[in-house]
Design goal:
binds copper (II) ion, elongated, Immunoglobulin-like, 234 residues, eight-stranded mixed beta sheet
């Protein structure tokens, strides 16, 4: 009669142990590299249906993004062509194109350390539209509000101060993604993407990394928060 059950040779057992060990190591490495690879989504600006040579980009700035490894950090969400919000600062735009940007700003603001940052530059017509009014300088000393963040692409000379909301209003957005029923300011402007295929670094120049050295650590230096890239592509 044949023996029931399985009896493995020493070699086979050692083999199984080795394979299990290798599989475990593989899983751990996969996890580590997956974490290192993970980077915010890239959102492609949406082709305008009404204006030639123009793309539209809709973004929001939240005092707390609400997701990811640091849900309490300040940062951006960007809307894709289907209206879906992505927590990111990585944007793709075509060359030689007008980029029409709308920013919904939900964070509170304050006085600027350098008044230069209140000045608008590098945008079509030299002005931004803030809550329906054309402005060349956004007043940082307005009581209760002030400037929350600045949208700056140094390589394209674009600077746009983003006016804050009053932090003590009832419908202040506590955590992102925020929606339009919550207190916000709306800033819209357009800039030209230029003729070069290039990856332009952009960032905020209001030291808003609260609790970090000079306010410039944490979210200030993190992709998806206060720093990102505009990829200008063919
Ligand atoms: Cu900021």
């Amino acid at each position: 009669m044949p023996r029931r059950g399985v009896s493995l040779s020493k070699g086979a057992r050692a083999g199984i142990v080795l394979i299990s060990f290798a599989a475990a190591i593989g899983l751990i490495l996969f996890g580590i590299f997956g974490y290192l690879r993970s980077s915010p989504d890239v959102v492609t600006a949406t082709q305008s249906t009404s204006q030639p040579n123009t793309v539209n980009l809709v973004m929001q700035v939240d005092g707390a993004v609400g997701v990811g490894a640091h849900p309490n950090w300040v940062g951006y969400w960007v809307q894709d062509a289907n209206g879906v919000w992505h927590q990111t600062t990585l944007v793709k735009v075509p060359v030689n194109t007008n980029v029409h940007v709308t920013v919904y700003e939900y964070d509170s603001g304050g006085a600027l350390r350098n008044p230069e940052w209140a000045k608008v530059s590098g945008v079509s017509g030299g002005q931004v539209n803030l809550n329906g009014t054309e402005d060349a300088i956004v007043n940082p000393n307005s009581p209760g509000n002030g400037i929350a963040h600045t949208f700056v692409i140094p390589g394209l000379n674009v600077t746009v101060p983003l006016y804050g909301v009053n932090g003590s209003v009832k419908n202040f957005c506590q955590t992102g993604p925020c929606n339009l029923s919550e207190a916000h300011t709306t800033t819209s402007f357009a800039f030209f993407s230029g003729s070069s295929v290039h990856s332009y670094h952009w960032q905020c120049f209001v030291p808003c990394g609260l609790g970090y050295l000079e306010g410039n650590g944490g979210p200030m230096q993190s992709l998806g928060n206060m720093a990102g890239f505009f990829e200008v592509v063919k």
